[in-house]
Specification:
MetI-like fold, 0% strand
């Protein structure tokens, strides 16, 4: 036998020999190392902004890049390439999130800071009848927005819910596919198209130049219906088929099963979807500009003449402020702030409805 042949004992010994010079573990950054680097980067950005006369956006970008580079280099030197890549990706994802959040925070801060100046009793209780300069309020616009949005909800919710029930419970074949296709198309149409549709519809009956609150409600309902259909359809699909089958087994007809079993089970989700649909259309401006117009006084009859709404009120206060412009601009910012507050309240109501009326489960 050749002397170069190794014995089984030698092989077994080599397998159990420790790997010399290969570390099995890496070091770890201090517990607050990343937070310390972040604090230094924030202070550096503030210094560039305050003392070096940098733009705040440029200072923030430099601070973010500096933090990312320092954390990655430190982690690569101490923890190794794998952990360093993990920290790099975490920093990039967090930076992307903050970048997306920045416009929202900026809008909220700007509107709140400029709109609070006119958040007083007069603003909520007076209209613009006879007002040319300072003073005046949005009472007429608030009432007009509530009336038109309520009418749009009355029109949209039954149509949307019945359409969703048909698609989930009855719809089969080409008709159901066609309805689904048109609902998808309606979801993406520009809001001005809805306004032009409502104007053309009423102009055929009442003639050119007609302006009424019900026209705005029809335009908003065109935007609301696809949202209600989609949200209701998804909620109905979540209802377990076992509930339907149990009802059928007891001899309950299909329509009564839908009315007494399916809809109550999905009620919380449907109500949430309807509330979010209202929040989606309550701030629309383009369709109301075309169909409702603007007025300076109170008009609570949606079937007779122009009405004021908050979005259109804010628009006209901004584009035609008059002389001096400051009072009108203050009213525009206050109306915008009021719209944001209403939309936030509707979203909170939707969450509350979802939590309170959701089906209770055991366990």
């Amino acid at each position: 036998m050749s002397s170069s042949t190794t014995s089984p004992d030698t092989d077994r010994t080599d397998l159990h020999t420790p790997l010399s010079g290969v570390p099995l573990t890496h070091g770890q950054l201090p517990k607050y190392g990343a937070w310390l680097v972040l604090a230094v980067a924030v202070l550096a950005g503030l210094a560039l902004w305050q003392f070096a006369d940098w733009n705040i956006a440029g200072a923030a970008v430099v601070a973010a890049i500096g933090y990312t580079v320092v954390v990655y280099a430190w982690a690569r030197a101490v923890e190794g390439a794998r952990k360093a890549k993990d920290r790099l990706v975490t920093a990039l994802v967090t930076g992307a999130f903050l970048l997306a959040l920045l416009p929202l925070v900026s809008v909220v801060i700007t509107v709140v800071s400029k709109g609070l100046a006119r958040f007083d009793t007069e603003f909520f209780t007076y209209s613009m009848r006879g007002i040319l300069g300072e003073g005046g309020g949005v009472h007429h616009a608030i009432m007009g927005t509530l009336i038109i949005t309520a009418l749009a909800t009355v029109i949209s919710v039954p149509v949307g819910m019945l359409t969703a029930i048909y698609l989930v419970e009855y719809g089969r074949g080409k008709l159901a596919k066609a309805i689904t296709f048109f609902v998808d198309v309606m979801t993406g149409i520009p809001s001005i198209v809805a306004g032009l549709f409502a104007y053309a519809l009423f102009a055929l009956v009442f003639g050119p130049g007609v302006r009424m609150g019900i026209m705005g409600a029809i335009a908003l309902s065109v935007l609301m219906i696809p949202v209600v259909v989609r949200s209701t359809e998804e909620m109905l699909k979540l209802v377990p088929n076992e509930l339907r089958e149990a009802s059928y087994a007891l001899g309950v007809p299909k329509w009564r099963t839908i009315l007494k079993v399916v809809l109550p089970t999905a009620l919380a989700g449907i109500a949430t979807g309807v509330t979010l649909a209202i929040a989606r259309v309550i701030g629309e401006t383009a369709p109301l500009l075309v169909t409702v117009g603007i007025t300076t006084g109170d008009n609570f009859d949606p079937f007779d003449g122009r009405m004021a709404t908050l979005p259109v009120f804010a628009y006209y206060q901004y584009v035609a402020p008059g002389t001096p412009p400051e009072p009108a601009l203050d009213r525009a910012w206050a109306a915008a702030l009021l719209l944001i507050v209403i939309v936030m309240a509707l979203n909170l109501v939707a969450r509350l409805i979802s939590r309170l009326f959701a089906p209770k489960t055991r366990g």
